[in-house]
Amino acid sequence: MADLAAPDHACDLAAVIAGLFVYPVKSCAGVQVEQALLLNTGLEFDRAWMVVDGHGNFLTQRELPRMALIKPQLKHFEMILRAPGMLALHIALDQVEAPVRVGIWNEDVAAFDMGPVAAQWFTDFLGVRARLVRFDPDHPRVSNLDWTGGTLALNQFSDGYPLLVISEASLDQFNKKLTAQGFAAVGMERFRPNIVLGDAPGELPLAPHDEDRLVLLHIATAYGPVRLQPVKPCARCPIPNIDPATAISSHAVGDLLQGYRQDARLNGAVTFGMNAIVLAGIDQLLRVGQPIGASYRFE
To answer: The whole model's pTM is what?
Structure first.
């Protein structure tokens, strides 16, 4: 059954899904996919696993840039992790070991340990004591209700929201500024979105950072509508400075963002992309190329 040609009501602008990314292990490399199941926590398997230190606190590329070199691959029944100099690590999608409590930001979260083999693999590659854990879906983790307007939005091990949306127009503008300063253009993977918005054929092109100005995204799927609500600008940490191919950090990306992306909505923090929540369409399949209608926020 084909997807609908367009959302079934009037919208302020038209776009398409130009890219979909899932990040199975928090702060490791992403997986670009052609389709993904939408759950109440975001895309299926997104941030379902996380690496923690010997005290159970989460680890990210902020402290360990080498995490960028860990590349997951999702198969039917397992996740395969590869990293330079390491044998592949196979993680069954339907198996966990002992329940544990782990720390992410200021939260104490229920999880499952993934066992000693995974722990040794991450410890060996990262050079610090580490363990792999999986989110426990029986203990929901709720996004900040102040930003969701009181809507109950769940996520797994993301920094706080189910989805991150960025447009190709935003990256194109950024790269024009970056190359004008003599630096090489960077890929979308630097900014770790889940959904990338692209121009719809025959429609007006998106403006840079249109995602900042949208109140609703309407996506037509074969089995029903999806509605996503952008709720909070994504404050950027140093991770976009890290080259995902080499794990080498450079200040060029962050310095450029400081020059034009300080956001009054977050008291001057640098932002790029919008965190979004799921209002409707749980268990629908998102696909690259699907049409999107969007409504502007008027304040």
So the answer is: 0.95
